[in-house]
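Dissemination and training. As part of the outreach component of the grant, students in the summer workshop were shown how a complex can be specified as a set of sequence lines and then modelled as a single object. The example used during the hands-on session is reproduced here so that future cohorts can follow it. Participants entered these lines:
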Amino acid sequence: MDPDARDRIIAAVRAVPRGQVAGYGEIARRAGLPGRARLVARVLGDAGDRALPWFRIVRSDGRIAFPPAHALHAEQATRLRREGVAVEGGRVRMARRAVQIDEAVWGPRA
DNA sequence: AATTTGACCCGTC
DNA sequence: AGACGGGCCAAAT
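and obtained this result:
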């Protein structure tokens, strides 16, 4: 795969601030790769841990991508809660709504 | 070389 | 809320 694209994805993931979450597709867009959410997932997998805030990346509907049985599912929820993100039923609360409200008040672009 | 497999997404019904 | 079809595509079978 294109190593340049990989680097841009990594950068976009790193750019997600503490206490916030972003969707795979969102990251892809921010990396200049619209429609390539799956590539983001793949890059994250290959990257292993690599000190990346991988746990801040969730599905577009707010659900954690890993199946509940998977060990990483619990780990992701734990690490998110540690940053103050509310996770219920394997799903993130607030984040998307909060972001939209911010945009409504302050205008687009953050 | 062909098919299946994913840490996915979106519009539509 | 869920289902369905189509898009996406590198790796692993």
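The domain at 3-106 of chain A is CATH 1.10.10.10 (Arc Repressor Mutant, subunit A). Students were then asked to discuss how this feature might be tested experimentally.
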